[in-house]
Specification:
By secondary structure, the protein is an alpha+beta fold. It has helices spanning 7-11, 13-23, 41-45, 50-60, 62-81, 122-189, 194-229, 255-275, 314-382, 388-422, and strands spanning 90-97, 107-116, 283-292, 300-308. It is elongated and about 140 Å long. It starts with 6 loop residues before the first helix and ends in a 5-residue tail after the last helix.
C-alpha cells in the first residue's frame, strides 16, 4: 500500500496508445533487424506506405506479367496493321516437263511471289482494332493494379487491427500482473484471503494466453502482407485515408469501368474489321517463266502477272459475323452490369463509413466511461472498500471496451480505405 497505485494507468495504456495504433502501427521490438524478401534492408526496416507497397507488389504479381503480355500482343497487332500487305507473302515454284510422256525435252519453270493485298477499308479497320487493343491492355493494367491495391488495403488494415489488439492485450497483461503482485503482498500482510490471490493469478494467466493468441494472429497478418509486397516492414497507414468523399457519383475514370468500356469499344472494332474482311485478301502474283519447247529449240523467258480474287460467301461470313455480334453484346451487357455493381458497392461503402464513424464515436465514449469507472473501483479496492471480484469485473469491462474501441477505430480506417477502393482510387 505504500507504493503509488499504477493499476489505473495500466488499464488506460491501451486507450492512450490507441490513437497512434490506428494510424501508425507500433513496430515490434526486433523487427528492424529482419531481412527483406528480395529487397534492401533499408526498405525492410522502414514502414511501407501503400503507394510504395503497391509498386513492390506489382513487380511480384502474376497479373503484372499478364498485363505486359497483353500489351505486347497489342503492339504486335499494331505493327501488323502497318504492313504493306494484308497477309504474309508466299513464294510460288512450279516445274513441268514431258520426261514420262513424249520425252522431247520440253519443260517449263516458273518462279513467283504471291502478295496478299488489303481490301478497301480493311487496313484502316485493322489499325483501329489494334489501337483499341492497346487501349484495352492499358485499361486492363490499371484495373489489375486497382484489384491488387484492394488486397493490399485489406492486408494492411488487418495488420493494423491485430497490432491494436496486441497493444491492448499487452496492457491488460501488465495490469493483471501488477494486480496479482499487489494481491500477493496483501495476502502476506493478512489483508486478503488466499483465494483472492489464486483468482488474481488465474486472471493473469488468462491475459497472458490471450496475448499469445493475439501475437500469433498478428504474425499471420504480417506474413500475408509480406507475401504480397515481398517486404517484412509493417504498413504505414498514417495519412492514407485520403480526402473525404462528398457523395459524388461513380467516376467514368474508374479503372474497372474503363476496362469494361474498352472491351465494348474493342468488340465493336472487331465487328467493323470483320465486315471489312468479307472475303480472303486478293493475291497479286509476280514472277518469271522459262519455257523450253524441245531439245532443238531455244528457251523463252516471260514475265508472269496474276491476280487471285477469292469470293466471300455466307457460309464463311455468317458464322464470323454472328461470333463478332455475340462478343459485342456480351461486352455491352457486362459493362452495364459492372456499372450497376460498382454503384452498389460505392453506396454500400458510403453507408459503411457513416456507420463506422457513429460506432467509433460511441465506442470511444463507452471506453472512456468504463475506464473512469475502473479507476474509481481500483481506488476503492485499495482502500479496502471493494472486493476483488468486483474490481476484476470492472477491469474486464474496461478492457473489453478498450478493445472494442480499438477495433472500431481500425474498422473506421478500413471503411475509408474501402470507400477509396470503391471510388477506383489508387494509393
Amino acid at each position: 500500500m505504500r507504493n503509488p497505485p499504477r493499476l489505473a494507468a495500466c488499464v488506460l495504456a491501451g486507450s492512450l496508445l490507441f490513437g497512434p495504433v490506428a494510424s501508425q502501427p507500433a513496430p515490434a521490438p526486433d523487427r528492424s533487424q529482419r531481412p527483406a524478401i528480395g529487397a534492401s534492408a533499408a526498405l525492410a526496416s522502414a514502414p511501407l506506405t501503400l503507394a510504395t507497397a503497391l509498386e513492390l507488389a506489382w513487380q511480384r504479381a502474376v497479373s503484372a506479367r499478364e498485363s505486359h503480355a497483353q500489351r505486347r500482343r497489342a503492339d504486335a497487332e499494331q505493327a501488323a496493321a502497318t504492313s504493306l500487305w494484308g497477309a504474309p507473302p508466299a513464294l510460288e515454284l512450279s516445274h513441268r516437263n514431258d520426261r514420262w510422256n513424249d520425252n522431247t525435252g520440253a519443260r517449263e519453270t516458273e518462279v513467283g511471289v504471291a502478295v496478299p493485298l488489303w481490301l478497301p477499308g480493311q487496313r484502316a479497320a485493322r489499325g483501329a482494332a489494334a489501337q483499341g487493343a492497346i487501349a484495352q491492355a492499358d485499361a486492363a493494367t490499371q484495373a489489375a493494379r486497382l484489384r491488387l491495391a484492394g488486397e493490399l488495403r485489406e492486408a494492411a488494415w488487418a495488420v493494423a487491427a491485430w497490432q491494436a489488439e496486441a497493444v491492448q492485450a499487452e496492457a491488460l497483461t501488465v495490469s493483471h500482473r501488477q494486480l496479482a503482485d499487489d494481491v500477493e503482498r496483501r495476502v502476506r500482510a493478512g489483508d486478503l484471503a488466499r483465494a483472492d490471490a489464486l483468482v488474481a493469478r488465474a486472471e493473469l494467466l488468462a491475459a497472458q494466453g490471450q496475448h499469445a493468441e493475439v501475437l500469433q494472429q498478428l504474425q499471420s497478418a504480417r506474413i500475408r502482407w509480406a507475401l504480397l509486397t515481398g517486404m517484412t516492414a509493417d504498413p504505414a497507414l498514417e495519412g492514407q485515408a485520403g480526402p473525404e468523399d462528398a457523395g459524388a457519383p461513380l467516376a467514368a475514370t474508374h479503372p474497372e469501368l474503363e476496362l469494361a468500356r474498352q472491351n465494348t469499344v474493342h468488340a465493336r472494332q472487331q465487328l467493323d474489321l470483320m465486315r471489312q474482311s468479307r472475303r480472303e485478301p486478293p493475291e497479286l502474283t509476280l514472277g518469271v517463266r522459262q519455257d523450253v519447247p524441245g531439245r532443238a529449240e531455244a528457251s523463252r523467258n516471260s514475265v508472269v502477272v496474276g491476280l487471285r480474287l477469292p469470293f466471300g460467301t455466307d457460309d464463311r461470313n455468317r458464322p464470323l459475323e454472328a461470333a463478332a455480334l455475340s462478343e459485342l453484346d456480351i461486352a455491352q451487357t457486362a459493362e452495364q452490369r459492372l456499372r450497376e455493381r460498382l454503384e452498389g458497392e460505392l453506396a454500400t461503402a458510403r453507408d459503411a463509413l457513416r456507420s463506422a464513424q457513429v460506432q467509433a464515436a460511441v465506442e470511444s465514449d463507452r471506453a472512456r466511461l468504463l475506464r473512469e469507472r475502473a479507476t474509481l473501483i481500483d481506488k476503492s479496492f485499495r482502500a479496502g472498500e471493494t472486493s476483488l471480484p468486483e474490481l476484476l469485473r470492472a477491469l474486464a469491462a474496461a478492457a473489453q471496451a478498450d478493445s472494442a474501441s480499438n477495433r472500431q477505430a481500425v474498422t473506421l480506417g478500413l471503411a475509408r480505405a474501402r470507400l477509396q477502393q470503391a471510388l477506383g482510387l489508387l494509393p
